[in-house]
Amino acid sequence: MLLDFTVENFRSIKGAETLSAVAASKSKAKASNSESRRRVKSDDEIAEPFHVEGWDIDVLPVIAIFGANASGKSNVLQALDYLLECMARGMFRGDDERTSPLIPFKLDKLNEQNPSYFNLRTAFNGTIYTYSLVLNGNRIFLERLSYALSSTKRERLLFSRTWNESTQRFDWKNGSDFSGAHNQLAESLEDHEPFISILSRLKIEVVKPLVQWIMTSQGGRYWGQQEIDSSFLNSLWNAEPTNLGLTGVLERTKNLLLKFDTGLDDIEIRKTESDKKSYQLYAVHKTGDSSYISWKFEEESMGTQKLFGLVYRMQLMFFAGSFLMIADELGSNIHPNITREIVRLFHSPKTNPKRTQLIFTSHDNTLQRNNLLRRDQIWFTQKRLDQSTELYPLSDFKVRNDLAIDKAYLDGRFRAVPFISDEDEQSTSLEEKDKDNA
């Protein structure tokens, strides 16, 4: 499970900003009479967190980030995605294609020349792992991995390496768990290659849960669209570990789409006649005379296509036990009632028994109302005066349980909303500027 993530000097993020999935401490205050009358739910009634075995830590199943356009919401997700990519597949150079290239904060000359910093804390089977990475587009300057057992609570080093500018080599420190023949691999690492990216090839018991989390999290990206091409259809046909075919993940996806009132009666995958190794997705509809008609799925509305991609990916993660899903603009082209239901599916132990977490951004402030999200699940981004991103949770504010958060948000009570200048003032300012230049 993801505990928290810190990033510094990445795109619009200048200083260190931390996104935490650790649940806030429970309030001991009793509900007021007005809250009782309105049947306001407690945080745990809205979303019961996952407990970290052996620690006094609870982890949230869902984190939602809201904020104005260009405030840095997507950059927070892209920073996390970049780190996970590095951990799973190694650092990517400038000539490689990737979802989130390493771009420093460019509005400050000093930051543009400095490396970027990432720190990730995760927890599995009562063990907390902490991974740090400092790098620029050419090399790694620091890489460190440590862990703490629930029995001792003491942090133990697995490995660390720090770039030594004078010797032009890395200074290594290894814990007792890393004393073995695999240390020879350190000599073959490139300056830009994270050591953690090769751990999946090594038999080191203490890091197995972390490596599994890293690898399964790669399938959890949803950037607002899903291309229904041949590779995607092949994954639909072959992805299920137990060979359940259409009765597995696709069947659950279809059932949800029917529940969401998309007008579909069925979804079919058929092999194409021209190429038996390729597949085509079809939407099946019921006509007025109770007969059936089908057409290619790309003829469906863009909203239905995007919803299909999102729901299928989500169901696949629930089924396979993937640990993290990252979704940018979750409610894009999707009705708010459906988005709310998707959030509830992640909250529910029944539909999400393997504890998959969801982190998403959205402009849909209706998701902030009616006991859908806890106060510690709602985060905001806003631009500082230097145009850098500030990230902070709603729980930083003292708000009543019965406050209409969505209305307070639009009123600017939590900041994180765009400042829209007056049109008349802007016109006057431009006219004065033209006179000065005349």
What is the CA-based Rg, rounded?
24 Å
Q: What percentage of residues falls in helices of 4 or more residues?
A: 25-40%
How far the N terminus sits from the C terminus, by CA atoms, comes to 62 Å
Outline:
globular
Strand content: 15-25%
Strand order of the largest sheet: 2-1-6-7-8-9-10
* Low-confidence blocks of residues: 239-246
What is the architecture of the largest domain at the second tier of CATH? Answer: 3-Layer(aba) Sandwich
Q: Any idea of the CATH class of the largest domain?
A: Alpha Beta
- CATH topology group of the largest domain: Rossmann fold
Q: Largest sheet at a glance?
A: 7 strands, antiparallel
Pfam family, one: AAA_21
Organism: Pseudanabaena frigida
GO molecular function, one term: ATP binding
Protein name: ATP-binding protein
Descriptive report:
26% of the residues lie in helices and 24% in strands. The strands form 4 sheets. A 7-stranded antiparallel β-sheet has the order 2-1-6-7-8-9-10, covered by helices on one side. It has a 6-stranded mixed β-sheet with strand order 11-15-16-5-17-18, sandwiched between helices. It has 2 domains: 2-220 and 322-410, Rossmann fold, CATH 3.40.50; 228-301, no CATH class. Strand 7 (127-135) and strand 8 (140-149) form a beta hairpin. The protein contains 11 helices and 18 strands. Helix 3 packs across helix 5 (208-217) and helix 7 crosses helix 8. The protein is globular and about 80 Å long. The protein has 438 residues and is α+β, with helices and mostly antiparallel strands. It has helices at 33-37, 43-46, 73-89, 109-113, 208-217, 230-238, 249-259, 302-320, 336-347, 405-410, 423-437; strands at 2-8, 17-20, 50-51, 58-59, 62-67, 116-124, 127-135, 140-149, 155-164, 169-174, 221-222, 266-271, 279-286, 292-296, 324-327, 357-361, 378-383, 389-393. The termini are far apart. GO terms for molecular function: ATP binding; ATP hydrolysis activity. It comes from Pseudanabaena frigida.
